[in-house]
Amino acid sequence: MAATPLFLILLLFNFPPGSHTQTQNATASPRPQLTEATIDTIQLAFKHSTLTSKQLVQFYIDRIHEHNHLLRAVIEVNPDALSLAEMADRERRARVPGSGAGLHGIPVLLKDNIATKDKLNTTAGSFALLGSSVPRDAGVAKKLRAAGAVILGKASLSEWSNFRSSSAPNGFCGRTGTGKNPYVLSADPCGSSSGPGISVAANLVTVAIGSETDGSILCPSSANSVVGIKPTVGLTSRAGVIPISPRQDSIGPMCRTVADAVYVLDAIAGFDPNDDPATRAAARYIPRGGGYKQFLKPDGLREKRLGVVRNPFFQFGGDEVVAAVFKNHLQTLRKEGAVLVDPVEISNITEILSSSYEMDALLAEFKPALNSYLKHLVSSKVRTLADVIAFNNKFPKLEKTREYGQDILETSQRLNETNRKAVREALFKLKQFSENGIEKVMKEQKLDALVAGSSSFSVVLAIGGFPGMSVPAGYDGGGVPLGIFFGGLMGSEPKLIEIGYGFEQATKVRKPPSFKP
Question: Active site includes 400?
């Protein structure tokens, strides 16, 4: 089925106020509190018939109508969302196997680079792909449907996953404008998975799916006070996701709690023949006998060896409030039984953070990866990166070309065979960076994970395809959220979940957003 035309998308955001009244009054039973609701509380309400999936979806649609004009976090609402929710309710009443737990009946927003074969568009936030038709659901979308989740719509993003313009602000999306941080509207929502982070934080959806090449889940999770898991590359399928780099791209959950993020990870992890051999190789890391939820242990910090990377990830520029927050958290980690190796040094960290090798490799990988994605679309106005650039030049008012430009797209397009030697050097250096950096320090110090207080830590994980997690850690003096970051080696998700869950349960600092100017 072709994606929804633009005029129908606009109509979706003009439901009459109060159109949900009949649905709300359909049952006399009191509803649970839906803001900040978790998957567990929602499933319990489903079980006791105090809530239906249709009512829950309608609640979020109403929230989107109320807040999205300000937050610009949702690009499209799925016109079939209520019908899908009704189907989930029927399955639950009929006691269809699997219908009483997990993600069944749970609304989820997908970042707008994740393909869905339905009435939703998949555009990476760009008008260039509006109206294009994908051949099939992305691998993660297929798994979500199999788990019974209701795809509520598409969330905004930094256009082309922040790979369009070096001057555009985080969260800028051609189709929606710039996303706003729901805690402090003038604060950076970070990117590129800004829409999923904002939406989950502002209770526009239960859970969301983002993607990360370098920092695009971890940073917006921190900035919007939500939990983000960036999985080991290949643990979740990238098939049907508009790419930057098959070597670094990863798809992961963004949720209000660690438990919710783990439930989503359990649903989307695993082999996908359309992303082979990456998912085949990573599948060996998936735990048997209970999946990832078995690692949701309140005492998960006990006896974990955590390396505190003070240089440069605990340097806060003299901000005493932020420094105090993380000082207290390090004490909490110790109190909960963790063994802190403080500090640890990543010997080549300055070179990792300052070199251009990662960007050199990404620029070279982007064009062939994107061209392959565009080539396999059923229909599209653009079939190559060159077509995208030409579209942006032809319709500058649509794409804000005059305001922000498209220098990253253009640089990638200019690369050719003569750059091969430089790319080989970049890839070799990145491999060395990981081997002599995070891998070396973790093995020498016998660490379970590294701890950081800055999202710039993401590059250490990104260049090696390693997993990471961001957990809400508090707020600065102006009310802007802070996250704490845990990262490890390939396949270390079980340890990261134990650590992240243990920290969350010991602190519980997340609070709903305040929408401050």
Answer: no
